[in-house]
Amino acid sequence: MEVKIMRRFYISLILCLLPYFLFPAQFTINTQQERKSISPYIYGTNQDREGVKNTARRFGGNRTTGYNWENNASNAGSDWYHHSDYYIPSDMGIPQSEWSIPGRCLTFFHQKSLQVGAASGI
Question: So what's the pLDDT on residue 24?
Answer without folding.
Answer: 78
